[in-house]
Amino acid sequence: MNVRDKILVFIDSWREAFGGSGGRYPQYYIAYEDLRCSGVHFPQRSPDTAPIFTPPVTHPISRHPQPGYEMTSSSTTTLDEAMAAEVETLRLG
To answer: What is the Cα–Cα distance from 87 to 93, expressed in whole angstroms?
Structure first.
């Protein structure tokens, strides 16, 4: 499969995975429809291709270091500062 066909398969898969025109990311549906209406023929997807599915987030993702990962909750040292201090002691071999 050439690069053009792979890209078209991705666009088609994303259109389907993101819920079409009423989905969370309608731009994939719009891109698919624009290309299809302009005469682009999308390659047939293999029936054994795994569907693209991303489950919804069920809990918030923490952007801050969590206690228990060698940083206490009362630590004033940022992760970047801690990593910079440890880099000086690292050796190869």
So the answer is: 15
pTM (predicted TM-score)? 0.49
Euclidean distance between CA atoms 14 and 52, whole angstroms: 7
- 52 near 17, Cβ under 8 Å? yes
Distance set, CA 47 to CA 44, 52, 64 (Å): 9, 13, 42
Note the pLDDT tens digit of each residue in 21-77: 888 888 888 999 999 999 999 998 777 766 666 566 676 666 655 555 555 555 566
* Whether 71 contacts 65, CB under 8 Å: yes
Spatial neighbors of 5 by CB under 8 A, at least 6 apart, are 43
